[in-house]
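Lab channel / #folding
Pinned by the channel admin:
"Please post every new chain as: sequence first, then the structure tokens as a reply. Keep commentary short and put observations after the output so the thread stays searchable."

First post following the new format, from NK:
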Amino acid sequence: MPQQDYRARLQPKDINQAEFILGPRNAENILFPLYSTRGVLFPYTPSVTTGSAADYDQTSFVHSNYGYNAYVRSYPKPIAITAEFTAQSNDEALYLLAVLHFFRSVTKSYFGVTPYNRAGTPPPVLLFNYLGEFQFNNVPVLIKSVDYTLDANIDYVPVSTQLQQNYSENIGVSLPCTSSGGFTYVPTHLTMTVELETQYIPIQLRDNFNLDEFRSGKLVGKGYI
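Reply from TO:
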């Protein structure tokens, strides 16, 4: 079997323009560790809950024993991911810190006068990949919600946000030193739940979607589920 990365990943739609989502590609950016995995890579096998649905309007008939269901629409159900993260090393701790800040960032819109030309821009559409081409293959998604608990019964470890020699070159960050001395604490184990909603472009759906081709698998790679 050819080697392929089947792990779950959330990534920018265009990795060449990732700066709009991941920020500058340098160590002065807290999200810099995510460049090493082209977005958020879930390090352990997550639990994924999803499905498909078809909506019907029920119509009643007078003096009838049966009703009638009028088809309305079909849609994929939300994709709920429950994933584990650990911080057993300096690199893992920095990566977890970047993941937490990533989800805070991609659930917000541009607002206010800085920068004015982007005000009102909504949170970005990302791509979700998991388990190979006939499962979740470049599925365009929005992040609807992120939940996690900083458990009291878990160990917390300090992680430095200033570049040190014991951090990998493509992981380490170097942020300005604060009153805390550049250290932040992260849990050694964290369970996170992420809810995704598919987000397709209407004109592309109209022009490109074909049920016969979808049924036969010919739309693989175009993100349809």
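NK: The chain has a mean pLDDT of 88.
TO: also worth noting, The helical segments are 19-22, 90-105, 202-208, 211-216.
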